[in-house]
Amino acid sequence: MASLANPLSTLTTASRVAIIGAGLSGLACAHRLAQHGVHVQLFDKARGPGGRMSSKQRSSATLDLGAQAFTARDARFVRKATEWQAAGCVAKWPVHSYQASASGWQTHHDGQVRYCGVPRMSAITRHLADSLSPYPHASLLLETPITSLEETASGWQLRDAHGGQHGLFDRVVISAPPPQAQALLADWEPMLSAACEAQPQRGCWAAWAIFESTLPTLPHVDDDWQTLHAQHPALRLVSRNHTKPGREAQPESLSLLAQLDWSDAHIEQTPEVAARQLLDAFVSLLPSGTKLPALLELGAHRWRYAQPVTASSESFLYSERGLSLCGDSFRGSRVEDAWLSGDELGEALLGRSV
Ligand SMILES: Cc1cc2nc3c(=O)[nH]c(=O)nc-3n(C[C@H](O)[C@H](O)[C@H](O)COP(=O)(O)OP(=O)(O)OC[C@H]3O[C@@H](n4cnc5c(N)ncnc54)[C@H](O)[C@@H]3O)c2cc1C
Fold this sequence. Notes:
This protein is an alpha+beta fold and 354 residues long. It contains eight helices and 21 strands.
C-alpha cells in the first residue's frame, strides 16, 4: 500500500537503489541519496539524460524540444537555480516576451523571473549527471530501457530491452511519467499502479524551424523579441532558440509548442504535417504579407506524456515493498515540481522529514 511512513529505516550505505529515468526528478533523487553514501544506479532509455528537458542538436542549431524556460518559487529550488547559475549551466531568459492574437502583438509581462539552460536546456541535467561522477557508488546507464521488475527473496531485479539483467536492489525508484511507470509496477504494487492510472497525461507537439536568415522586423515589435505567447487554437508558445544565452552564433531557429487541446486532437498526425500546421499558425499571427526567410529545416517531436491533466496532491509515493514514484506529475507539471519531487523522495528514503 502507498504509504507516507518511512519504509527505509534500515537503509544503510550498503543499500542499493535503482532509479529508472534520468530526467530532472530521477537525477535530483539520485543526488540526494548519493550525497549520503547510498549506492545508486540510474537507468534511462534515451541516449542522454534530460527527459522532457532534452534538446535536439542539428548541424547548425540547438533546439529545446520540451521545457523552454522555468520559474523558481520554492526557496529550496531558488537556491538550486542560483547554484546552477554559478556553475554556468543556467541563465535568466527570456526578458523580451510578447503575446499575440488576431488583434496584434503586445509586450507580455507576468512578473515572473524565468531561467533557461546554457547553452541548451539539457545542460542542466547533463551537469547533474556529471556531478554524480565524484561519487564512486553512483552510476548512470543510458540507452537502457527497463522493461520489467522482479521481486526476489534478496531484492529487486530489473530487466532491460536488450536482455540485460540488473540488480539486486533494495529499493526501486521510478521517475518515468505515470503511464510508463504503471507498465513496470502493475504486477507488483496495485496501489501505486492505481495512483498512476489516476494521473492521465496530455500530449504535446513541439515543432522546430531553422531559417537561413533572421526573421524580418515586425511593426511595433523589438527585433530582439525572445518568446511569443500565442492566442491561437493550435499554437501556444514560440521561442527563438538563438536568443538563448550561449547560442548567439546560431542561425534563427524557432521552437513552436502546440496547445494541449490541439495536440490531443492531432496526436496521431505525422510530424511533417504537425510541423507545417504549427509554422502556418505562427505565420497567421504575423502582419499580412510578412515574408519568412528560407527554411533550412522543419520538424516536430511528439510528446505523448507532456504533462498531467491534474497534479497529484502528494510530492511522491512509496510502498512498503520498496517501490517508489517521483516526477513532476506528483506535484504539478513544471521543472521546479520535478526537482522538488525527486529531492523530497530522496530525503524521505533517507528517513528525513520533508
Ligand atoms: C513541450 C513541453 C514544454 C514544457 N514547458 C515547460 C515550461 O515552460 N516550464 C516548466 O517549468 N516546465 C515545462 N515543461 C515540463 C518539464 O519539462 C517537466 O516538468 C520535467 O522535465 C519533468 O521531469 P521528470 O524527471 O519528472 O520527467 P521526465 O523528464 O519525463 O523524465 C523521465 C525519464 O524517464 C525515462 N524513462 C521512461 N521510461 C523508462 C524506462 N522504461 N526505462 C528507462 N528510462 C525510462 C525517460 O527517457 C525520461 O528521461 C514542459 C514539458 C514539455 C513536454
